[in-house]
Design a protein that fits this description.
Blueprint (H helix, E strand, L loop, with lengths): L3 H9 L1 H12 L16 H16 L3 E5 L3 E6 L5 E7 L18 E2 L2 E3 L7 H16 L7 E7 L7 H8 L7 E4 L2 E2 L3 E4 L1 E10 L8 E6 L9 E7 L10 E6 L2 E7 L14 H9 L6 H13 L14 E2 L3 E2 L1 E9 L3 E10 L5 H13 L4 E8 L2 E2 L5 H14 L6 E3 L11 E3 L2 E2 L13 E3 H18 L3
Parallel strand pairs: 3-6, 3-7, 7-22, 8-23, 9-21
Antiparallel strand pairs: 1-2, 2-6, 4-5, 5-24, 9-20, 10-18, 10-19, 11-12, 11-17, 12-14, 13-14, 15-16, 17-18
Length: 454
Amino acid sequence: MGYEKLNEKMMELKDEIFASIKESVAIESVKGAPEEDAPYGRGPKEALDHALALGEKLGFKTGNLDNKVGWIEYGEGEEMAAVLGHLDVVPLGEGWKYPPLACEIHDGQMYGRGVLDDKGPVIGAIYALKAIRDLGLPIDRRIRVIFGTDEENGSSCVKHYNEAGGEQPAIGFTPDGQFPVIFCEKGQSFWEVTKKVENPSSVKVLSIEGGTAKNVVTPKCTMVVEGDLDVKEADGITVTKADGKTTIVAEGQGAHGSTPEKGVNAAIKLFEAVKDCGIDGDPGQMINFILEKIGTETNGKSLDICWTDEETGETTVNLGVVKCTEEDLFFTLDIRYPKNGDRDTLVATMKKQAEAYGMNADLESEGKLLYVPKDSELIRKLMNVYKEETGRDDQPIAIGGGTYAKAFDNMVAFGPTFPGEPDVIHQPNECADVEKMMLSYQILAAAMYEIAQK
């Protein structure tokens, strides 16, 4: 069907939508210290209260589960279709051109923390409910706009919703990713590999330190050893000798842990530089493991965990943080696998590979594989809406990252950003083109209408 009437109705609501977004963005809903009625702090609770009040003002049924998750609902029917978003935001940070809580519009761009991630889309979805209701469009499933308040810090909000017996949607999407639609999010597996030093190196290694986070390619890594170590300086490798110590610093290039091939790992670079310098014992074994089983590969082939799938890509392995002292060795691995990867095989193989070098590999956390077939009802409906509304012929995408969609079965990320747009989410000067914002809300409205049909 065409969506002319729905599109027109959404444009009629534009001023109301932007006014409500402005009210929400003005609330600094960064996670804070818990209070009696505000488990994630005062800011997220105020943003939750604002959204619920908006739903009530518009005449919808609302729900609030322990001030962690709220929802607004319309329609009748046994089954429920869901739009899942969140009202918490990352810290404002420095370097804004315009006030981060003001929603000022400059050169057609609305600036503010949350305009894209994810307050704008949540407010857009609430008004899409109003448009569907006001037009009297027939639906078979109830539509529920669910909004969490802890997505940016681990999504404990929707975890609580599920554990407390919150109603499960039959179908749904989260406007917390990108268009056209993300049909696959690789399985995620985060590891800590450790060892207590029992057999020190004959070259005394005082410290090795590098990396900023487990899901970032190590951008810089530093090793300090006792004595005069003969290490050749090279591109990105500097060697300093002072106070009876040798300090080797490797500079690499950071990249997201889901795309390690886009970076240059400084820890790997450092270990390549010192591999023939006589470092042995337990530190030497750790270096051997990293060079022999990971090296400059980013697909896990030497670890024997490389799965390749034409549709959803291949395994990625990222060495993130390295932190070693005279007593302890420690590094992290971020492993992501496509739809033909096997989680249990991965776990068993990783433990075995580390044990062969005398180290312990512990699975610190993981994210499940999300895969919804391209020919499923959900993907077909979302893609049809996207093509009808944009005239574009983009194809569904698979990513290594994870989105809010993993909270529920039969849910995927759909919008709000369009292909080719700069990535400003979590950055200073988070902003959105106001025309594209409205287009994205028209797409959300049409998609909500379609997934509410059986």
